[in-house]
UniProtKB/TrEMBL annotation:
<dbReference type="GO" id="GO:0005507">
    <property type="term" value="F:copper ion binding"/>
</dbReference>
<dbReference type="InterPro" id="IPR011322">
    <property type="entry name" value="N-reg_PII-like_a/b"/>
</dbReference>
<dbReference type="GO" id="GO:0010038">
    <property type="term" value="P:response to metal ion"/>
</dbReference>
<dbReference type="InterPro" id="IPR004323">
    <property type="entry name" value="Ion_tolerance_CutA"/>
</dbReference>
<dbReference type="InterPro" id="IPR015867">
    <property type="entry name" value="N-reg_PII/ATP_PRibTrfase_C"/>
</dbReference>
<comment type="similarity">
    <text>Belongs to the CutA family.</text>
</comment>
<dbReference type="Pfam" id="PF03091">
    <property type="entry name" value="CutA1"/>
</dbReference>
<protein>
    <recommendedName>
        <fullName>Divalent-cation tolerance protein CutA</fullName>
    </recommendedName>
</protein>
Length: 105
């Protein structure tokens, strides 16, 4: 089994988040993408305190697909420097992890 991976990113617009989620699943880059409701993010960008509404995308994929997932996010994202964080899935229901692999192979 390839190594399952959880990738997190945000998007400022629900329509853009949903388009990106659908693209990742349609192209076999992700088995599933959850788009969470609006949240308010606070951060410092270019020396200024900033805040704004964002939607969190929780992307289930595998390590071998990470470069393509990252490229798809960068291609579709309006931010100069989008949040893209990946972490291995060390444990999970074996059947679900196998499903991730089958959908992203």
């Amino acid at each position: 089994m390839n190594d399952p991976l959880l990738v997190l990113t945000t998007h400022p617009e629900i329509e853009g988040a949903e388009r990106l989620a659908a693209k990742l699943v349609r192209e076999g880059l992700a088995a599933c993408v959850n788009v969470l409701p609006a949240m308010h993010s606070f951060y410092v960008w270019e020396g200024r305190e900033t805040s704004g509404t964002e939607h969190l995308l929780v992307i289930k994929t595998q390590d071998a697909r990470y470069p393509q997932v990252e490229a798809a996010i960068l291609d579709a994202h309006p931010y100069e420097l989008p949040e893209i964080i990946a972490t291995p899935i060390s444990r999970g229901l074996p059947g679900y992890l196998n499903w991730i692999e089958s959908r992203t192979s």
